[in-house]
Design brief:
It is built from seven helices and 20 strands. The chain is an alpha+beta fold. The longest helix has about 30 residues.
């Protein structure tokens, strides 16, 4: 009798537990359907993917946070709700947030090319894959994504907050995002790497799949990372007052007002596991690693002389001198 009584008690407790589990699941499901955050659960937040997960006894729910975990459900996106193995729809019966961005991309037809470095700084490297360019419209103003990145690289985080997080790649570190919210006209996929010294971002068409060279170390950011550094004079040099030609082609001559090329270096910082590197200016110019225009954009100051105009002015000056002598 005691054994039967024990089993009856356990059975009743199990039934109560199951009923309670399903009851709490339905309560939180109805809360999410009405735009409220579920409460009878354990909550966990992933700050990289911005996914907040709620785990109840028999259910799992998720949302993508826009700004803060304290925001109401109406400010979030990508809600889903599953009871055991059954997924339930969470229709948004409230105002859908309108994206402040729109993206316009142009795909490369019959693309066979590898990913291209689009932008780099000390914080992040952004690659495009099979895209000619990316234009972003914000506040009714369209500019290239590159120009936005140059102003503030956090634009990438703002863009991925508008995308849908699909989970991790098979490497268990790379985040996958897809445009299920229609902020782009032709579709978009994004991979965000999360490996030691590699936090690259890859942006491509909706059909883009993870390539073998994605999220691998590449020493390819020299043009973005290098800066011009001019060392101070250490000793007096009489030649420094002379002009120094640093490059010359058929049309132009590029020169300094003084001899100083041996004091100018192109420097890349210690970043992403790589040590600081210093290269003499003349090695960069003679090796065609950077053009004079690219060096000027980095702050190198020099005189650009049009040799044809210089000869014309010299000839004109000589003619004026001859006329002056003849008049005398």
């Amino acid at each position: 009798m005691k054994k039967n009584s024990f089993f009856k008690t356990v059975t009743k407790l199990l039934i109560i537990f199951v009923i309670f589990g399903f009851l709490t699941a339905m309560i939180d499901y109805l809360r999410m359907k009405s735009g409220e955050v579920p409460v009878i659960n354990i909550s966990k937040y992933n700050d990289k993917s911005r996914i907040q997960t709620y785990r109840g006894i028999f259910y799992k729910a998720e949302r993508k946070v826009t700004v803060s975990v304290n925001e109401p459900l109406t400010d979030s996106s990508n809600m889903n709700f599953s009871i055991l193995i059954f997924k339930l729809d969470v229709p948004r019966q409230f105002k859908e947030l309108k994206s402040v961005y729109s993206l316009n991309t142009k795909e490369v037809e019959n693309c066979q090319e590898p990913a291209k470095l689009y932008y780099a700084d000390k914080d992040v490297k952004v690659y495009t894959y099979c895209l000619e360019d990316i234009k972003l419209t914000k506040d009714n103003k369209e500019e290239t994504l590159l120009s936005y990145l140059a102003k503030d690289n956090t634009i990438i985080d703002e863009v991925d907050s508008e995308l849908s997080y699909l989970g991790l790649h098979t490497d268990q570190s790379t985040l996958i995002f897809n445009d299920q919210n229609n902020i782009s006209k032709t579709g978009l996929t994004m991979y965000k790497c999360n490996r030691p010294n590699i936090n690259d971002v890859y942006i491509g068409p909706e059909s883009m799949i993870f390539q073998s060279d994605f999220c691998t170390y590449k020493d390819d950011d020299f043009k973005f990372m290098s800066t011009v550094v001019e060392e101070e004079k250490t000793t007096a040099n009489t030649e420094e007052k002379q002009k120094e030609v640093i490059y010359e082609d058929e049309q132009y001559r590029y020169e300094f007002d003084e001899v100083k090329s041996d004091r100018i270096f192109i420097v890349t910082p210690a970043v992403r596991g790589k040590e600081e590197m210093r290269y003499p200016l003349r090695d960069i110019i003679n090796g065609n690693i950077l053009t004079l225009e690219e060096l000027a954009a980095k702050g190198l100051k020099y005189n650009k002389i049009d040799k044809v105009k210089e000869q014309e002015e010299l000839l004109k000056k000589q003619q004026q001198e001859e006329q002056k002598n003849n008049q005398q």
